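testing teh design pipeline on a random one, pls ignore if ur not involved
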């Protein structure tokens, strides 16, 4: 029988119960309907997320530049989130989640709302892996 907790233990040195805070630091999660702040721009939202993850200014600039390019958000950095299409919002959520360089990611309905270009660009088995070494 498959034991997901055993699988998690194999990927980290943390006890999932006793060290839950440490596990959260290496884990990314994208819900099927993520919450976004509609009145922030793409850059502001990524900066806000980077602050939550404790990225300094240098880390933020380095990480966001790579992620913005990877997810094709270059032309939307100054756009308000409320003005983005559903697919662009979904790409923004992926970029924000990958800022922390999670070792493990849980994605609920990973391709809902993504355009075919984004799905092909990411390859369903390696999205993010080529960018940050995360496991999906």
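output:
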């Amino acid at each position: 029988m498959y034991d997901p907790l055993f699988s998690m233990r194999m990927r980290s040195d943390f006890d999932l119960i006793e060290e839950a805070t440490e596990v959260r630091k290496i884990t990314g999660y994208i819900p099927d309907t993520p919450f976004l702040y509609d009145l922030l721009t793409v850059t502001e939202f990524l900066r806000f997320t980077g602050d939550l993850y404790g990225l300094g200014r240098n880390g933020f600039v380095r990480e966001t530049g790579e992620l913005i390019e990877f997810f094709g958000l270059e032309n939307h950095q100054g756009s308000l989130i409320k003005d983005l299409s559903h697919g662009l919002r979904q790409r923004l959520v992926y970029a924000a989640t990958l800022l922390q360089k999670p070792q493990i990611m849980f994605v609920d309905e990973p391709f809902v709302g993504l355009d075919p270009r984004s799905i092909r660009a990411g390859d369903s088995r390696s999205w993010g892996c080529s960018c940050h070494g995360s496991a999906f």
